[in-house]
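Hello Y.,

Per our agreement to keep a running log of every chain we model this quarter, I'm adding this entry. I've kept the format consistent with earlier entries: sequence first, then predicted structure.
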Amino acid sequence: MTTEPLQQKPGQQDDTLTTGVILLAAGFSRRFGSIKLNALLPSGKTVFQQTLERIRGATDNLLVVTRDELLDDLLQAGTPLAQTVVCPDAELGMGHTLACGIRHMPAHWDAVLVCLADMPFVETSTYTTLLGALRPDVIVVPEHQGKRGNPVGFGGKWFTSLTQASGDSGGREVMKGNSDAIQRVVVEDSAVHLDIDVPGDLGQHRV
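Predicted structure for the entry above:
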């Protein structure tokens, strides 16, 4: 089945649906050379602070998944302890971090947007649009100029499968096995393709 891009109005959502964000912030920054979430952007904010701020502009339903070594830094950056969980096997890859987040998220969430803490340039309006497109039986993927990006959203139909995620694949295996459920959401935000891998990436996107 070929999915067609979905043009979604920001904030458009079923009033009975509860959505949230799982923010993955447990990486080891091996290519960056230091903890990239603490690196300063041209805005004067850290990578994590700016990512967090933009997500919070779209929703208060947030769970940050991190590891012990980063917990203090993330709390100082403004993450409430009640919205934070430590993943004990984060060193095994992003999939394990995602699975940990799914297991610890609030039981009343019907769908979740999986966001990456090293994508500080994604606009708040993009998060709002993607959250508004979520449904229990769809997988939501942003598309900019014909290319898919992140973050990706999953309906509750796939929560059990996501708890089995492992390695560095994240939710890709679930997406591969359920391509007919993918809805592409067209966004005017090139930052859905931009993450921070090396120090030179810190200034790659300016508004």
